[in-house]
UniProtKB/TrEMBL annotation:
<keyword id="KW-1278">Translocase</keyword>
<keyword id="KW-0520">NAD</keyword>
<keyword id="KW-0812">Transmembrane</keyword>
<keyword id="KW-0472">Membrane</keyword>
<keyword id="KW-1133">Transmembrane helix</keyword>
<feature type="domain" description="NADP transhydrogenase beta-like">
    <location>
        <begin position="1"/>
        <end position="78"/>
    </location>
</feature>
<keyword id="KW-0521">NADP</keyword>
<dbReference type="InterPro" id="IPR034300">
    <property type="entry name" value="PNTB-like"/>
</dbReference>
<dbReference type="GO" id="GO:0016020">
    <property type="term" value="C:membrane"/>
</dbReference>
<dbReference type="GO" id="GO:0008750">
    <property type="term" value="F:proton-translocating NAD(P)+ transhydrogenase activity"/>
</dbReference>
<protein>
    <recommendedName>
        <fullName>proton-translocating NAD(P)(+) transhydrogenase</fullName>
        <ecNumber>7.1.1.1</ecNumber>
    </recommendedName>
</protein>
<dbReference type="InterPro" id="IPR029035">
    <property type="entry name" value="DHS-like_NAD/FAD-binding_dom"/>
</dbReference>
<dbReference type="Pfam" id="PF02233">
    <property type="entry name" value="PNTB"/>
</dbReference>
Amino acid sequence: DLVFIVGACDVVNPAAIEKKGTPISGMPIIMAHRAKTVVVCNIDKEPGYSGVENPLYESNKTIVLLGDAKSTIEQLLEELKDTPEALGT
């Protein structure tokens, strides 16, 4: 399985459930860290509004695509459109 995250930090930050005493401790999150593969598309790897580092960004199962999300996704879709799977072959 795969989860694709665009422009989110705090709402997918496992520190909310794994670390005590942070501004996001106890906050409900999207459990993206449970996926086998995580793709993060974000402008940078800086902490979100809370200021809490996101360990998901450093995980071995995470691919981080830095930069403008719109242009990054457009480029990714362009590269994928001619794959054999996309062509149905």
